[in-house]
Amino acid sequence: MSRLGASSRLAAAIALWVGVVATPAWAAGPPPAGETTTTATTPTATTDEPTTTATTTATAAPTTVTDEPTGTPAGEPTSTTVTGQPTAEEPTHPTGSGVPFDLRVTAAFERPAYRADEDITVRATVTNNGTGVAEGVQVSARGDFSSDYWPEFGYQGVRLDAGASASGTLVGRVTTVADSLSLVVSTRASGGEDANPADDAVTITVPITVVRGGMTGRVYRDTDLDGVSDPGEDASGVEVTAAGGSPFREYRTTTTSQGRFSFEDLPLGAYSVRTQPDDDWFYPYTQVDVGEAASPELVVRGIQWLERVVAASVSFDRQTYRPGETAVLTISLTNSGATRSGIAASWSTEGGTPHLDLGELRDWRPGATLPTGETRVFTVPVPIDGGMADTGYLRVHLTFSSPLLFSGSFSRSAVLRVPGARAPRVVGLLAKQRGAQGGPLIGDPVPNTVVYLRDQVGGAVLVRATTDAAGRFEFTDVPVGLHDFGVVGPWRLLTGREFAVRASDTPDLVRHVVLVAPGPDQPDPGQPGPVPPAPEPPATGPRPGEPDALAATGADVLWSLVAGLLTLAAGAGAVFAARRRLT
């Protein structure tokens, strides 16, 4: 037997022995505590042939092939090495539900004492004294405090490994009038159970000093709008509210017969002072800071609501028009109070989109001026186009205001008709209202119920129908324009009372939804009857400033009447003369 063959057989025997010894060790895992491990190294033969070095671990019990236990569960694959050095990664902290974490919180105020009008800072530290990982760790504070947001912990919380800590700050103000502030600062994790919840919360207290001040003031009603409190303008018995301070509170008082008020013993800070308005007078808000110095003196000026002193009317010169004509919108303003300047109006339309030039009223800088006791009239041309023929009407809304005085606003509107077109079919749904929050919602349909449209001007019933089992109704051959919707039976209309019909409406796309609720029984107005024709507009509409067509023909009518009377007198004279001749 050659030396090469002997060496090969020796290497094979050693490899086989290593496999037999190592196999139960892989399956068995790390040796139990208390057992010892030894490392045996086969010496290298001094030959010209390749040599093999093997590292093995021999124990009295099942053994392992690594120098240190890896903590790999039985039955899972492991890695081995022939260098004698461990290769497993450093173990991480377990996060399983069975591994406990132990959170402990400490907290303290940044300063030993505070004033009520100062920002207060709280610092807290959370430490994980357990062996497991705590996920989503958050901190909260309960008490009379304006904030509970800790930026360092955020809304999702932080992760704390075993032995780790995290700190955060809370900044806010006290929200109650007291000589101290107590906060319960606590911590929690998003999952798992704390091994020792007794140290998850701590109560801290700090002294609070409430520094106080006051304010005084006077309320007057500026009847002549001169910006000065004159004799007789004192506003007595008016409620005044001061809201603010630190901590925030609302305080109320009532003016004396001289219009004076005062607030004493107020916590320092910024206040909004408002005077309760009434039906005739408006009082603007006032901002004031109450400090440790002298009390501020306020003067509150009351101004009459614009609608109380300015009467407005809006109308068209005619009721009906044809496309291509120009309507005249007349605006009349009468001032019963002191002279007012800067009066303006904004406008919007329904049923058409004409452009309106309101002249002086279009901009409050400078706006229109209304002298005391005077009436001013403004005329606005309104072109009538084909779009209004489709809708059958035009409604103009005007909102009047006096921004220089901040004395409120009010609205007026006027409607004209453009009759002639008709809608072949108009469909809709009659249903109950479901829910009241967030606007009307369509509820159960109302079947087998008579509905109708009534002419807004003359009051005649135009069309009627009966809803089907699904609450749907259909009108046919309906005049365009604005109509009044009616329902027969114990119902009260909630929406859809004013019913607009357009000639271009497509029944498949446009649906009118009318919502009702139980209410008093509504009578049946009967079948549709003949509708009085709308007043026929003249062939050419009057120009702005010209008299109405009927007024313009007044002289012709008078001369026709005189001529008729003369003819009648002549006829009577002829008959009388003939009788005398016969006699």
Automatic annotation (TrEMBL):
The keyword Transmembrane applies. It is found in: Secreted. GO terms for cellular component: extracellular region. Keywords: Membrane, Secreted, Signal, Transmembrane, Transmembrane helix. Residues 77-86 have a biased composition (Polar residues). Gene3D superfamilies: Immunoglobulins (2.60.40.10). Residues 520-541 have a biased composition (Pro residues). Residues 1-27 form the signal peptide. Residues 29-100, 517-550 are annotated as: Disordered. Residues 218-291 form the SD-repeat containing protein B domain. It comes from the Bacteria. The chain crosses the membrane at residues 557-578. InterPro entries: Ig-like_fold (IPR013783), Sdr_B (IPR033764). Residues 29-70 have a biased composition (Low complexity). It holds the Pfam family SdrD_B. One of its GO terms (biological process) is carbohydrate metabolic process. This is SdrD B-like protein.
